[in-house]
């Protein structure tokens, strides 16, 4: 699971190129909450990562638990995503609102690199947190 550790370390460093280096050239990145997903190839995925970092400049993922198939081909990771939404994310303009949400990643690994990533999180929880933050101001 070294590749998954490297992947999250690059994400947490906000290193788009480092994150992309953990993927195969034909990566399929599928965020079920994103209306344009799935994204294919490093160029498309890099653009999405850049937009996430622009929207949440202090985004951080903390792994809670991880499961792997015996052969390491499939990995499921539950994490906590946190940060301040400065831009637009999950369909809402954050205006600096703090968010904290559970996120589930399903990875497929091929030849030591991630060939497929599927992300699941509760977008309505993000929207509720942003709205509550705006309402409290």
Tell me what the structure shows.
Helices cover 32% and strands 43% of the residues. The chain is an alpha+beta fold. It has one domain (2-135): Nuclear Transport Factor 2, Chain: A (Roll), CATH 3.10.450. Strand 1 (23-31) and strand 2 (39-40) form a beta hairpin. The longest helix is centred in the middle third of the chain and has 15 residues, at 41-55.
Short recap of the structure:
With 137 residues, the chain is α+β, with helices and mostly antiparallel strands. It contains 4 helices and 8 strands. β7 (97-110) and β8 (113-121) form a beta hairpin.
- Mean pLDDT level: 95
Order of helices and strands: HHEEHEEEEEEH
In DSSP terms (H or I, runs of 4 or more residues), the helix count works out at: 4
CATH topology: Nuclear Transport Factor 2, Chain: A
Structural class assignment: alpha+beta
- Main beta-sheet annotation: 6 strands, mixed
**Helix proportion:** 25-40%
Strand content: 35-45%
User: Uncertain segments of ≥5 residues (pLDDT<50)?
Assistant: none
How many beta-strand segments?
8
Number of domains: 1
- How are the strands of the largest sheet arranged? 2-1-8-7-4-3
Q: State the name of the first-level CATH class.
A: Alpha Beta
Please compute the radius of gyration using only Cα atoms.
Answer: 15 Å
User: Termini, distance in Å?
Assistant: 43 Å
User: From the 3D coordinates, which CATH architecture would you assign?
Assistant: Roll
* Shape call: globular
């Amino acid at each position: 699971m070294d590749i998954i550790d490297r992947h999250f370390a690059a994400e947490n460093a906000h290193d788009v190129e480092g994150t992309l280096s953990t993927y195969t050239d034909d990566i399929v990145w599928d965020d079920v909450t994103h209306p344009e997903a799935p994204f294919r190839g490093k160029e498309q995925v890099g653009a999405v990562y850049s937009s996430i970092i622009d929207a949440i400049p202090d985004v951080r993922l903390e792994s809670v638990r991880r499961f792997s198939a015996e052969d390491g081909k499939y990995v499921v990771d539950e994490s906590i995503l946190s940060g301040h939404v400065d831009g637009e994310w999950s369909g809402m303009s954050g205006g600096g609102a703090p968010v904290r949400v559970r996120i589930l990643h399903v990875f497929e690994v091929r030849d030591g690199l991630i060939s497929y990533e599927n992300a699941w999180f509760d977008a309505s929880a993000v929207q509720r947190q942003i709205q509550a933050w705006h309402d409290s101001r």
